Amino acid sequence: MNDSEESLLKEYRELQLRVTRFSAIEQELINTRDRLDHELILYKRLQGFTQRAIQNINLFEFITLLLEAIIDIVEVESSFIYIDHLTGNAEGELFQEGISLDIARKAHYRSVFQDLLKRIGPKQAVVLHAEKDGEILPEELHTCICFRIEIPEHGFSCLLAGAITKKNAPLYQELKNKHNTIFEILCNQTETLYTNRLYGEELQKTKAELQKLSLIATQTANSVIITNRFGEVEWVNKAFTRTTGYSLEEIAGRKPKDFLRRMPGQADEEKILTEYLSQKKEVELTVVNLNKNGNPYYNRLQITPVYDQTGQLTNFISIQRDITREVLYQKENDSIRNFFEAVLAHAPAEIMVVDSQGKLLFYNRTRETGMWGIESREALESTLLQHSDPSHCIERLLHHIREAEKSAGSIQYEEVFAGSEGSEKNTMISVQPYRDEKSAENSMYFIVTLVEISEIKKIEKTIMRNNEELRKINSELDNFVYSVSHDLRSPLLSIKGIITLIFHAYDVSSDVEKYLRMVETSINKLDGNIREILEYSRNSRLEVKQEKINLETTINSIFQEVKYSVDSMVLLDMEFEGEKEVLSDRSRLTTILKNLISNSVRYRRKDIETPHVIVSVKKEPEVLYIKVSDNGVGIPKEQREKVFEMFYRGNAASSGTGLGLYIVKEIVNKMNGRVVLDSEPGKGTAITVSLPIHHDDYISL
Amino acid sequence: MNSFLRFVLIDDDEIFNFLHHSVIKEVFPKADILSFQSSMEAKEHLGTNPLRGAIFLIDIRMPELNGFELVEYFESLPKEHFTGSSFYFLTSSLDERDKTRARNYGLINGYLEKPISIEKIREIGEKQR
After folding, report:
1. Do A504 and B118 touch (CB under 8 A)?
2. Is the separation of the CB atoms in B31 and B23 below 8 Å?
3. Between A493, A498, A501, which is nearest B92 by CB?
4. How far apart are CA B17 and CA B41, in angstroms?
5. pTM value?
6. Which of B22, B92, B94 sits opposite A501 (nearest CB)?
7. CA A132: distance to chain centroid?
8. Coil, strand, or helix at residue A115?
9. β-pairing, A233-236 with A223-228?
10. Residues A11-61: pLDDT tens digits?
11. CB distance from B89 to chain A under 8 Å?
12. What is the ipTM of this complex?
């Protein structure tokens, strides 16, 4: 071989080597072009997803689209989206595509992804392989690529994943860098898209809310002022114009305090307002403002500073309300209340108002001036613990309040309080339940009234003691009177009986009979005297009774008795006007009639042929008139007053005791009646007794 | 007609006993009359000796044992003690309370006022037959 041949060969070999190299490069270039083509397809798919996702689709469509996109773009078998917060339940929500899972398996996947979400960091794709990350992957998975999306301001986090199962792994290429990269891009875009969705929703909500708020601000009856951060008016509502008379045009850009004048003399309020506003703090208070016409009104105002997200003061909002009517009403209320409290403070009774919890709502005394030793507006329960002294009284009061609540009726009881130096104070307490129908709670109150009755008690005791003593004396006197009358009458009656016996047993001479008759007359007179004295003493001591009396029968029996004692003829007659039945004291009425009738008989004119006594009874609804008239000797004018005196006898020759008319007058007085005497000497006398009539309903008294 | 009547008079006043005795004899001459001037005596005697079909006239106001107390004692005795007898209070008391109290005794048939009349004695005697 020569040199040239050799060098040619050498060149050829070099050329061959170069060709080989070129074809390798060419192959490389083709491969690169294919790879780029492939990547381009993936990017085009990504673009397609993005274009469809930004259209106005609902969340479910968005998720479906995303699931498909993960499979297409990352070239995996299946895709998963795990959302941590969506339904608010602790497990989160799992969506999947490309793999079918039964319910139990799906729950397993859900917990796996929930776990993964916590394990991997955000903003970065992580690839997990079965051979090294087997414990944290579901066993059927060969490879899994994950990405965590976090939107903290919405409390949102989710996990996007693509996966290939072990079974189908041979059919898929290994995940490469480009897959990682494009998956990251997909996930970042998803995050952006989702964030935009959330903001969009919020914006809609905010807009609706703003509309409502502006409606409220415009339409409310309260005045609303919005100022800028310097306090210059930007906006006022209609109510403000109505209340103050200023329209927005007049006052825009001015400070409220410059045009809305305040009544002088409110230095304290001015100070508070200035202090709070300079510190940019919320303030609420009432001032008296003057409206455009110079009329004052009570203005309840609330001023709130408004800050933006960065904490910069942007506005003041002032809400104002004209409370003039409320204030005036309150003032009137207070003055009425003060008036009544002042009146009650001077009331002789202690008055408390207590609610059913035992809380004191009102008390017209203080701890020092009142019997209860408590202060108004103090809960009775707590007082009970604080003061040992009147605690039993308060315990008993609470008991009676509960009783009154149960029975819904008033309760009265007596209570003894300890006075100064060991003395006791007797009181009468009344608990009156009171239901306030008008109050919303329809609650029950108790009006507790305390009246001191120590004096009354003392007097009552004395009266009781005196009464008892009097009763005893009266009873002794009664026994004495009856015993004396009995002892006086007994011998008289035996004499009388003996005389009767003599007449029956012996044939007495006319002289002896005359004497015996005289003895008998004297005995009858003496017996009559004893009876009259007894009647007088009975009248003064015994209570007036009320019983049904038939006047006709009563008068008839008196007539019989009187006739019996008179030897000559006397005409006895009676006449009635109205009912003959009357409610009265039988014994007293009988005594009156007996005395009047026997007086008329006793003082009859002996010189006329037909002496008469007429009893006229007239019953009116309220008064009973009984008139006993005669044609007897009559009473001289100068004696008319005296005949009613004790032991006065008009005629020295008369056989009376001088007690008859006195007893009549005493009895009539006792029965609240009246006696009228009408007489003409020589012609006759008429005595009229008028008695008040009691009706059936008084009987029980 | 006048036979078999038996009267028991209990009165601390001797004259009344005599008087009532005479009045009864006047109406019922054959009547058997037992008089006690002391209520204690009457209690002792009648407490041990049963008396049937008699008319008792008892005064109320008596010393030691009054008429009410005596009647209370009589009521405490067995009923057979006084079978067929009738009891009357005979008194000069005007005290309404005595009359009211007398009504409360089941043993008592009536309340009579002194002095008793011949008519009254005849009435209660006839009633007893």
Report:
1. yes
2. no
3. A493
4. 15
5. 0.43
6. B22
7. 76
8. helix
9. antiparallel
10. 898 889 888 888 888 888 898 898 888 888 888 988 888 888 888 778 888
11. no
12. 0.78
